[in-house]
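Protein modeling request. Please complete all fields; requests missing the sequence field cannot be processed.
Requester role: graduate student
Desired output: 3D structure, token encoding
Chains: 1
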Amino acid sequence: MKIGIAQIKPRKGDIQENIKIHKKWIEISILEKVDFIAFPELSLTGYEPELAQELAMEKSDARLDEFQKLSDQNNIIIGLGIPFKTPLGINIGMVIFQPNQSRIIYSKQRLHADELPYFIEGKEQVVLNVKNTKIAPAICYESLLEEHAENAKKLGAEIYMASVAKSQNGIKKAYAHYPKIAKQFSIPVLLANCIGYCDNYLSAGQSAVWNKEGEILGRLEKDREGLLIFDPETEEVIKKEN
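Delivered output (242 residues):
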């Protein structure tokens, strides 16, 4: 099995342009025979809380159909970030496309205080079965809370996948926290961050993979788009950069 971690530079609020960026890295992943590719937090719109109301999407949004077709035709699972419209408010969501299945949404369960004016919290953890390996997604702030990883492990997760939009300060915290989580729960941790400006800060890239001993196996630069491809069986990481 191969898991792809995409590091991209989303264009602020430009969904159509961001679709093109996503497709580029999905197509590279298909050529590399990746089974599951994950993108950063709110990757399809950029991390822009103040625009969330305007940009919020439903799971059935026709603009997402292209990703379902790519999934169906190439037997690849795709996880990308959207502000997700619900009857009660807007979630920070990861919409997940699986071959010939209905798309599902994982919604961020724990929000940072700065996000509370714009979003509501999700209620349920999702664990994906990818080639008989269970992968638990986490979205940014909650991935720095030990209880979130602990619950994922209780649900049988064998890989912890953090989709984030972090500044350099946030990355510093992540690089201190994720190796501890990996070692404590004996679970590889994968980090997908974006680059470029989002909200009111500069995203710092440095997407990475840690093994279950907390050892870093590979990482990307702070200012370039790229892809990390992780094989959990061999612990090999292949790097593709723009």
